[in-house]
Amino acid sequence: MSEQSVNEIEKKELIPAPTIELDAELVLEPIPEQPQDRTKVAIEERPPEEIDLGDPELYFNRELSHLQFNARVLEQAMDENHPILNRLMFLCIFSSNMDEFFEIRVAGLKSQLEYNREKNGPDGMHPKKVLSLISEQAHKLVRRQYKILNDIIFPKLAEVNVSFIRRTVWNEKQAVWVKRYFRDNVLPIISPIGLDPAHPFPRLANKTFNFVVELEGRDAFGRENGLAIVPAPSSLPRLVKLPDDVCEGGDNLVFLSSIIHAHADQLFPGMTVKGCFQFRLTRNADLEVDSDDIGVDLAGALRTELQSRHYGSSVRLEIAENCPLHIVDSLLKQFDLEQQDLYRIDGPVNLSRLMAVLEMVDRPDLMYPPFSPGLPRKLASSGGIFEAIRQRDYLLMHPFESFAPVIDLLSEAAKDPNVVAIRQTLYRTGSRSPIANALVEAARNGKEVTVVIELRARFDEAENLALASRLQDAGAIVVYGVVRHKTHAKMILIVRREGVDLTRYVHLGTGNYHAGNARLYTDYSFLTCNKEIGDDVHRVFQQLTGMSKELKVKKLLHAPFTLRDRLLEMVNREAQNALNGDPARIIIKVNSLTEQRLVQALYKASQAGVKIDLIIRGICTLRPGIKGISSNIRVRSIIGRFLEHTRVYYFYNNRNPQVYLSSADGMDRNLNNRIEVAFPLQDYKQTRRVKKELEYYLADNTQSWILQSDGSYQLSKPRKDDYRSAQRVLLNELADSTR
């Protein structure tokens, strides 16, 4: 699940997964990165002293590992533990993830080739070879996606009276109703474009829904070109619900594509429509704002770049599988694409739009039921949140525990006459979110409000520009961080006058300040008024909003300055402890792991005998299970109801455990090119709690995928009556209660 794609999926009880008998075509084929088995054997045959830890054979390809994560998301649509509408949702998430993968990752590889800037990663694979393997594996995944949709999801939904009615089976009443709908709602706003010298091929925006129509005959002007393009306006819903009076019960939906197909002849009166075929073009959607050309106006440069995002270079063509070859070839030539960029589709293009079904169909019995996040009793008391934080630090794990205290902290600060200043970083939050509303209120109430907004949060740039304008209009000071380093840290600093003293209240988190995401992502929140932590956060804000030399911080680890090197030191310390004969242990839970120096340090620690568990949701370039190199490293990916998003770094430290929670993944960009923070847990109970919660993930045998040394992932299979789900355990322990 990508961070932008997840929708709410909630369920009370875990159902033991039955054995699912699939036909051969529905058995997921492993996605090999390279001929991994031969590579593993070749490495293991070398003496340890001859193994170079920079050897490309020790690393999986980043992009292919990313594609494997998408494959694991797709498999959730096959998991009968999920309610059927949630299984449909996972299918939609896979589609959205693949869109972003092509818009950013594939587009980036193509750009390298186009501009002769090929750059091999640690795996040593040339971008052209990577693109070829991506095409091979992505085609398999897309075929599987549509087979799951057509052969499993649609039939199972029909069994519970949620039906997608194809135009070939419309009854007379339905056909009449659809014809009227087309006449009143589609025909007036659709603009067919015949192709001739006076009507060149239209410039189609990224991921828009279109039809290519094959025509026969001459029009009123004597034109006889044979092809036309019909763009479907974004204002038209992709799904339409049929009224009850033309159906026999249940929820009955028709696709916009079916409606247009059925009435394409009305778009070209007097012409013969030989065929109507839906298609969609994916373009490069990565923004490239040259930091050397920005001058003093990053916002202005970004606004200019946003206008061109929809018309980047072509990277993928999706088209109906029955479209004739000569039309397909014509479109490929038009978009300057090759055969490997073509995806023939057995169903509607852009399946992510099927997410609308969750709102169109009022069937809560087909989805996870809601739950009430837990809340520590003292945070729920009427004494106020400042009083509660003065008494003790709080560690919350969302969504199992409520995000409300974070919103309450800002809301109370906005109204409290003793609060004199608020500083906050924002990456993804929404211009009208509760967090934004509280900051606006605080600024209007005369507080000194300073907000560091990262405008370049991918696909949230326009929303962040709107948020910046709203805050500035309210009187807040808005800065955009550091030009060459994205601000990804999650920090709130509130300065409150208490008697003759000023007290700093702090929130630090692993996730974004988005109340909706806090119901869907697993993240930690830390609330404290610890003086040293407050001083450190103050210094980090000084560096972000002003200009200064690197300021030393005592407790926090701060990228790009100290975080990477300190993590390497702690990994190396565990290795040394193991060499000294002391117990050594590392557990890291992040979204992705790609930073080569960190990977090499983990290899060395494994060679020294350190037991290492990595819980990596998405991309992992480290190859586990290689004798003499990584035989002490286990890598697992948890894919389930909630999007795993916590970043935790645990080190046993010779019986004195150290735990850091962070906004940073183990990636090059996070550790070297972003503003990130990691904060320590200094309370023994909190340290022990996080360790216990990590152990839940390590014990998970229902939603845990184990990375093999050949690059494939194997889903854990629980023994009979031994079903363990980390997310389910955390729901039971933390939600539905006030403690």
UniProtKB/TrEMBL annotation:
Domain of life: Bacteria
Reported modifications of this chain: An intermediate of this reaction is the autophosphorylated ppk in which a phosphate is covalently linked to a histidine residue through a N-P bond.
Start and end residues of each Polyphosphate kinase middle domain: 174-356
GO molecular function: polyphosphate kinase activity
Domain named Polyphosphate kinase C-terminal: residues: 385-549, 556-727
Record's keyword annotation contains Zinc-finger: no
Active site: 488
Catalytic activity reported: [phosphate](n) + ATP = [phosphate](n+1) + ADP
Binding site for Mg(2+): 428, 458
Domain Polyphosphate kinase N-terminal: 59-164
Residues binding ATP: 97, 521, 617, 645
UniProt-listed PANTHER family: POLYPHOSPHATE KINASE
Recorded family membership: Belongs to the polyphosphate kinase 1 (PPK1) family.
Function: Catalyzes the reversible transfer of the terminal phosphate of ATP to form a long-chain polyphosphate (polyP).
Name of protein: Polyphosphate kinase
Lineage of source species: Bacteria, Pseudomonadati, Pseudomonadota, Gammaproteobacteria, Oceanospirillales
Gene from which this protein is expressed: ppk1
